[in-house]
Design a protein that fits this description.
Structural class of chain C: mainly alpha
Strand order of the largest sheet of chain A: 6-7-8-3-9-10
Number of strands of chain A: 10
Order of helices and strands of chain C: HHHHHHHHHHHH
Chains: A alpha/beta (about 650), B alpha/beta (about 325), C mainly alpha (about 325)
Distance between the termini of chain C: 9 Å
Helix content of chain C: over 70%
Distance between the termini of chain A: 71 Å
Oligomer: heterotrimer
Number of strands of chain C: 0
Radius of gyration of chain C: 24 Å
Largest interface: A-C, 95 and 94 residues
Radius of gyration of chain A: 33 Å
């Protein structure tokens, strides 16, 4: 039996730092973990104090009372030789605890040392060891234990040593995976640069990071070891006659269960409960230490629950606009408020996107610009929902539409482009397959028609050799080419509005320019509108006609690109412009003191006032409204500096 | 004061091995080829390029995190490439690093105080109270308080983390700090703070920087001299302002015209220039670089010679060099 | 695809060599004297030496190993020390039972585990999902052979729906064959089904949260279509990896379950080998089972290559 608890090489997540959650003592105190630990503690105590607890000698024969049902004298009855089942259960705990402990100890000692060594040395050492390990893993642990017993003779210690050997493989894999991942971490490089030695790096820097997954692994291994010990004892190898094992009791039960059906119940329950506790402890620890379980899945809710929540629990807009938006407006966001639980992520956001224009939504990370875009699409995740306002597309409120109606709008009338183009494509489907999907769904095309149109689309977005590339998979595209594919997919049904969420942030400078040019060309060619979300005022200056600046969940300023960049009216816009290095160098860059506050801690009054150089007392009061394009009570008195 | 620069990189080449088969790959990929530049004491050399240009590899070779396959690195009169397997501790004190992502460049399980303290202790035998004072002083230098020392990296903001990384670097009073994209993971408003901190530290400590970044505007702001890299080779060097205002190499021009500025008037001009240059195509894969000038596949002025011969760095003006067959061609500067 | 199969086949050769060397070494490191065991301790030294010579045990180890490998390549795994039957034939007779048991258990586990996993993934945190999580925890903890005992007690001994012991080959009577395997396979399948359900649920939850699912939804593709045509395929990639491991686990479990139902499989052979210290039988069994597991890994690797374009060499 090989444990399947190998953790996936955590490179991917670790590179982004997402999985690098440190252990929190508070999370260890969760009830599930605590209870499991307490019960397992009791198990160990029972094993230690077996002679004190057991009412009878577990080996004492009493043939007259054989196969007795539970009674006052024998709480759980007796077996075929009249031995007390309860006493045997209590002594059996000893065997199981010893077996688990031995396997874990052997596996830890061997697995961790080899894993550390191989992981750090790498190269040929690593490859050869992994080959050996693969060979070893091809043998079921039970088989190896049996072979060991056959060769070196009966005995629990020997059999469990063989099992420990096999388990060492998975400990080694975990250790190696963590070491390999950590070795690539920049902090290891930084430690090398500061002159810290190899030993220091392996033991003081890397080893503590291996500890967490190993504890989890050890807990699961203890449970599996118990199962294997029981199997071996059941087969009659491993234990000798002076030892009592739950597995051995089951073997007795097998022979006499037709006479005494209760016999198999108690040892089986004991095994199952113990393994369950070990497993639950492992799972609990895994959550507590933040090790990613490949089998556990993300804690977030599924896509379907998302829509359900956002459709059902959506509250009707409080201040729906009395009048239809002015002519020439395609998308009108009015007083949009989005909240996660009690926390408002986006408050009272309003802006209009006119037909044929590129409208920029700009702000730093955490200002709510992406949430706004996702809300427009009706694709808000999990517990996040629209609590107020409306999103009017040609006068029709998308907030009030059901999922089915929204599906007809998404792709058909609104397309979307994402920041990470490769992640926005399914890794195991060809690009042609994914491009054609929307065409088949919305336009009712056959696979063949869709493929022909997909090739046209790919050439439209400037992918060379389009027809051939339809058969390629996303990982065969460079970032820039993948973004062209995503744009092509979004434009498949020629939507009137394209929402582009940081479409060039992940790309190189020269490629960014190409993609922006492409977006601009396509906008004209297909006469659509673009809602461009970005943190980069340079992108705004390059392609946007009009722009809204967001700060802490609100639009703080809105206006034409030229006005906003050359003569900003909100202090935050001014500060943002000044902070960007551009043109001839200045002595010192202007900075904004402090940092963007998190959503649960937005200041009262003007949300920018604690960082604003122009703040006066009244800025901290009330709830300033947007007036004349700026959400600032002092907008009229201030003369702010633009980019020139 | 002597004229010897603090760091001299001379025809540096770094090659990676490809493949992970049973016996390892045989193919080698040149990540850096024939790169030469100098950093005087107290100055900043900015290295600009896109992903795959080899700029970070150059930095890592100088940090001795990678073994160069050719060329020399001379630091403070000592041949760094001639060191054995072990790097002398004095070199580890003199050359420090600040990486792009402060979250992964700080050990998540160590407090700020431990991280900085162990660096100081490696080079100076300091005891408990003295060490504590030294760490506090270092934290103060980067604008953090003593209480930040007891925090774990994840308890700090991005900007604060980068300050800690800088504190770790300056704690041992190095002569050179390699800054590998030190601000690109930060928000605009924090970027400025970190850049200002780096310039302040340079003034007070007299440290030199090798400043690696993809953003030409940021590099221009901090650097005295700039080097532009493309596909493993240096294509242009010169004083920061001159390179940015009057680029010689077509790639530098492309980079400049592609960089976006928040000034709508200026940006409209750049845009016009950029579109005049044409689409520009995709950069070739570093695994299969084109023959001749690596840029010729995307260059408007490429001629036959560009596809055949690798252009060498030649002087194009006082303190300026470029690797282009058509450098100084009037058609190009027009 | 051909390239992948060939490269995997080639890479499993050193694994097999290593495995047999390991088993061979283990066996020869121990001071068991088959001659003494078989002929009795009292037998004369000459007789014992002659017997050892007959078995080829007096030759140098490397020669013995070479001999064994050469034989193995021709499909000859030696003869049992006790019954003098060819080991290949002994294994061949019993492999069918073990394999049909393990495969049947796997099929049952997949039929139960995958749909349950999907059910849980569609509404994470819902009541059905919590019940599933609980059931999975139980399924992982309950020993398969205990379950086999209980099933035998209930359905065979008490209700008499199925035979208590014994095995009917498929070629003789497919109906009886199925009847003789249903109980043991069900008992074995529970654990594996729990593992598969858990993995399917986790993988699918992850997949449904992936950016490309959001991207597909942003193009107005209905959820059901995304689930069936995109998410399932991507979610199956990690599930496949688990199936390979589980197959090895199942082969191990058959050894125990065969005993309960008195099925003439590899497990029974192995136990006899262990008890009698019949080295050729033991060695042959271990290597054949190892090769089997490697073969299963190979098949899943190929399936993996079909589903996951990234590992496909081009």
């Amino acid at each position: 039996m090989t444990t399947s608890a190998d953790i996936t090489p955590p490179e991917e997540q670790q590179r982004h730092g997402a999985a690098r959650r440190p252990v929190r003592a508070s999370r260890l105190r969760r009830p599930a973990v605590l209870w499991c630990a307490v019960f397992l503690g009791v198990l160990v105590l029972v094993a230690l104090a077996a002679p004190l607890l057991a009412p009878y000698d577990p080996l004492a024969l009493d043939i007259k009372n054989k196969l007795a049902s539970p009674s006052v004298a024998h709480w759980l009855g007796t077996d075929d030789l009249g031995r007390d089942v309860l006493s045997r259960l209590i002594y059996g705990a000893r065997t199981s605890v010893v077996a688990s402990a031995e396997v874990v100890a052997v596996a830890l000692l061997l697995g961790v040392s080899v894993g550390l060594l191989v992981g750090y040395l790498g190269g040929l050492w690593d490859r050869v060891t992994m080959q050996v390990v693969d060979a070893l893993q091809a043998v079921p642990a039970l088989l190896l234990a049996l072979a060991m017993v056959a060769v070196v003779g009966n005995g629990l210690v020997k059999a469990m040593f063989a099992v420990g050997l096999v388990f060492a493989v998975s400990f080694m894999r975990v250790t190696r995976a963590v070491v390999l991942a950590e070795r690539e971490q920049l902090y290891v490089d930084a430690a090398r640069v500061t002159g810290l030695g190899r030993a220091h790096i392996v033991f003081r820097q890397i080893l503590p990071n291996v500890a967490a997954p190993l504890i989890v692994q050890a807990s699961i291994a203890a449970g599996t070891a118990l199962l294997i010990e029981a199997s071996l004892s059941f087969l009659g190898v491993g234990i000798d006659t002076t030892q009592v094992s739950w597995g051995g009791m089951l073997e007795t039960a097998r022979q006499f269960q037709s006479e005494q059906p209760l016999l198999p119940i108690f040892p089986g329950v004991a095994i199952a409960v113990c393994v369950l506790l070990y497993n639950l402890l492992g799972d609990g620890l895994r959550d507590a230490v933040g090790v990613r379980d490949p089998a556990a899945g993300a804690p977030a809710r599924s896509a379907r629950t998302r829509t359900r929540l956002s459709v059902v629990e959506r509250r009707p807009a409080e201040a729906a606009p009395a009048s239809a938006p002015a002519d020439g407006t395609l998308l009108s966001v009015r007083g949009l408020t989005v909240a996660a639980g009690d926390t408002e992520l986006v408050s009272d956001v309003s802006f209009d996107v006119r037909k044929g224009e590129t409208f920029g939504l700009v702000g730093e990370s955490g200002c709510g610009k992406s949430v706004t875009a996702t809300a427009v699409m009706g694709l808000l995740p999990g517990a996040v929902r629209v609590t107020g306002g409306s999103v009017l597309l040609d006068g029709r409120d998308l907030v009030r539409l059901g999922e089915r109606e929204l599906q007809r709008i998404r792709g058909e009338r609104i397309g979307m482009v994402f920041q990470d183009p490769v992640a926005a494509l399914s890794p195991s489907h060809t690009v042609g397959h994914q491009l054609g999907e929307a065409l088949m769904v919305h336009k009712g095309m056959t696979r063949k028609q869709a493929a022909a149109r997909s090739a046209e689309l790919l050439s439209l977005v400037g992918v060379p050799d389009a027809r051939r590339r339809l058969a390629d998979y996303p990982h065969q595209f460079s970032g820039g080419m993948a973004q062209r594919v995503v744009i092509a997919a979004a434009l498949a049904c020629e939507p009137e509005l394209l929402i582009a969420d940081e479409p060039t942030t992940a790309l190189d400078v020269t490629i960014q320019a190409q993609v922006l040019d492409l977006l601009d060309d396509l906008k004209r060619q297909l006469s659509m509108s673009v809602l461009l979300i970005t943190h980069d005022l340079g992108v705004v200056a390059d392609v946007c006609d009009r722009v809204a600046v967001m700060y802490a969940g609100q639009v703080v300023e809105v206006g034409s690109t030229e006005d906003l960049l050359l003569s900003p009216r909100h202090p935050y816009s001014e500060a943002l412009l000044a902070a960007m290095p551009h043109g001839a160098p200045v002595e010192r860059l202007a900075t904004i003191p402090g940092r963007v506050p998190p959503a649960w801690d937005w200041p009262s009054g003007c949300r920018f006032h604690p960082r604003c150089p122009y703040a006066v007392e009244r800025c901290g009061e009330g709830r300033p409204e947007i007036a004349d394009g700026a959400r600032c009570v002092r907008a009229a008195e201030l003369t702010l500096k633009g980019v020139r | 004061m002597n004229d010897e620069p603090l760091l001299r990189v001379d025809r540096l080449s770094v090659a990676y091995r490809l493949g992970t088969g049973m016996l390892g790959g045989r193919r080698k990929v040149a990540a850096v080829q024939d790169v030469s530049f100098e950093i005087p004491k107290g100055a900043t050399f900015g290295l600009v390029g896109e992903s795959g240009s080899g700029k970070s590899t150059t930095g890592r070779a100088i940090l001795r995190l990678l073994q160069p396959s050719g060329g020399r690195i001379v630091f403070d009169g000592r041949d760094v490439t001639a060191f054995g397997r072990r790097t002398p501790l004095s070199y580890r004190r003199d050359v420090q690093v600040v990486f792009q992502d402060p979250l992964s460049s700080l050990n998540p399980k160590q407090t700020v105080r431990t991280t900085i303290g162990q660096t100081i202790r490696r080079h100076r035998k300091l005891g408990g109270r003295e060490l504590r004072r030294e760490v506090d002083e270092t934290l103060d230098m980067v604008g953090l308080s003593s209480f930040h020392g007891d925090r774990l990296p994840h308890e700090l903001s991005g900007g604060q983390r980068q300050r800690v990384a800088i504190a770790r670097a300056v704690a041992v009073r190095p002569k050179l700090i390699v800054c590998d994209e030190p601000v690109s993971a930060l928000d605009v408003s924090t970027q400025g703070q970190v850049i200002n901190l780096l310039t302040d530290l340079q003034r007070t400590l007299g440290v030199s920087y090798l400043f690696i970044a993809h953003d030409l505007d940021v590099v221009r702001h901090v650097s005295t001299t700039i080097g532009v890299m493309y596909l493993g080779r240096l294509v242009e060097t010169g004083p920061a302002d001159e390179v940015c205002t009057a680029p010689v190499h077509p790639y530098t021009r492309m980079l400049l015209d592609s960089a976006l500025v928040p000034d709508p008037v200026e940006q409209a001009e750049r845009r016009a220039r950029r579109r005049a240059l044409g689409r520009g195509g995709e950069p070739p894969s570093p695994l299969a670089p084109p023959p001749g000038c690596a840029f010729h596949t995307r260059c408007r002025w490429a001629s036959e010679v560009c596809g055949a011969e690798v252009p060498q760095m030649t002087s194009t003006g006082p303190a300026r060099r470029a690797a282009c067959h058509h450098a100084g061609d009037p058609a190009m500067t027009g | 695809m051909k390239k992948l199969v060939v490269s995997r086949l080639i890479s499993s050769v050193p694994l097999l060599v290593l495995l047999s060397l390991f088993v061979f070494g283990l066996i020869n490191l121990t001071p068991t004297d088959p001659a003494a065991q078989i002929l009795g301790v009292g037998a004369g030294e000459d007789a014992k030496a002659a017997y050892r010579h007959q078995l080829g045990l007096d030759r140098p180890l490397h020669e013995q190993f070479g001999q064994w490998v050469l034989g193995a390549l021709r499909g000859d795994l030696g003869k049992s020390w006790f019954t003098a039957q060819p080991v290949t034939q002994m294994i061949g007779d019993r492999l069918g039972v073990t394999l049909s048991l393990a495969l049947l258990a796997l099929v049952l586990a997949l039929l139960a585990g995958v749909p349950l996993g999907i059910l849980g993934a569609l509404r994470p945190g819902s009541v059905p999902d919590r019940i599933l999580t609980l059931a999975v925890s139980l399924g992982l903890a309950v020993p398969g052979f205990w379950l086999a005992l209980l099933l035998a007690l209930l359905f065979a001994l008490t209700l008499r729906w199925f035979p208590v012991v014994g095995y009917t080959p498929f070629t003789e009577d497919p109906g009886e064959w199925a009847r003789s395997l249903v109980l043991p396979a069900t008992a074995m399948a529970v654990h594996t089904a729990a593992v598969i359900a858990r993995q399917t649920r986790g993988a699918l939850v992850d997949t449904l949260n992936a950016p490309y699912v959001q991207a597909l939804r942003s193009r107005g593709i209905p959820f059901r279509r995304i689930l069936l045509r995109y998410a399932m395929k991507n979610a199956m990639i990690p599930v496949l990896a688990v199936i390979a491991v589980q197959m090895s686990v199942l082969v191990g479990v058959t050894f125990v379950v065969e005993r309960i139902f008195a099925l003439p499989g590899i497990g029974t052979l192995l136990m006899d080998g262990v008890v009698q210290a019949d080295m050729p039988v033991l060695q042959g069994t271990v290597v054949v089972v190892g090769a089997l597991v490697l073969l299963i890994n190979l098949i899943t690797d190929i399936a993996y290559g079909v589903v996951n374009p990234k590992v496909r060499p081009r």
